[in-house]
Specification:
This protein has two domains: 3-61, no CATH class; 69-166, MazG-like (Helix Hairpins, Orthogonal Bundle), CATH 1.10.287. Strands 1-3-2 form a three-stranded antiparallel sheet, sandwiched between helices. The chain is built from six helices and three strands, in the order αβαββαααα. The two termini are 36 Å apart. It has 176 residues and is α+β, with helices and mostly antiparallel strands. Helix 3 packs across helix 5 (130-148).
Length: 176
């Protein structure tokens, strides 16, 4: 294994890496072309200088161990569906799921208020992880989407297209 490949594996050990070595801009161009040609699903790309001064570009490709952003909602929905389908009851009715979603959002709000707001917890109350509360919301939202046959990947893409079009000039951009 080359020094550069070893560096890439250290950066993201559970992903497979494709290595390209050449000039900086052409390495990135080759990675993008490779992605389009083979349908690669990149997790991350990084460009690093080797000890010999050459530029190396690494592309992590999804091997299933790390879901990419584009595939993560589909993956979440499948995991939730697999879990729900093992029980006879199946999905609750949409209004029941919405009530559960409201409860989960309330739990997240309560935890954030305890940590960052004026209301502190009782000494008898334990601390909850904000990330876990957010994940409960994602789980419940996936239940709702699955029960209604909604593809969250497609819906999220439409929403992002809407925001990127509607709000592109709404806020002052950071200087880059």
């Amino acid at each position: 294994m080359s020094e550069k490949h070893e560096m890439a594996v250290r950066l993201r050990p559970s992903a497979h890496f494709h290595y390209v070595q050449c000039g900086c801009s052409s390495a990135v161009e080759r990675l993008v072309a490779n992605e389009k040609a083979v349908g690669a699903n990149p997790i991350t790309r990084s460009i690093a200088r080797s000890s010999k001064g050459r530029t190396a570009a690494f592309e992590a490709v999804n091997d299933g161990s790390i879901p990419s952003l584009a595939a993560s909602m589909k993956n979440i929905q499948k995991q939730v569906d697999d879990w729900v389908r093992q029980y006879k009851i199946g999905y609750f009715k949409p209004l029941e799921i919405l009530a559960r979603l409201t409860e989960e959002v309330g739990e997240l709000a309560r935890e954030i208020n305890h940590r960052f707001g004026p209301k502190k917890k009782k000494s008898t109350e334990g601390t909850k992880e904000i990330g876990d509360e957010a994940a409960d919301i994602i789980f419940t939202l996936a239940c709702l989407a699955n029960s209604l046959g909604i593809d969250l990947d497609k819906s999220f893409k439409r929403v992002m297209d809407k925001y990127q079009g509607r709000d592109k000039d709404r806020y002052k951009r950071k200087d880059t």
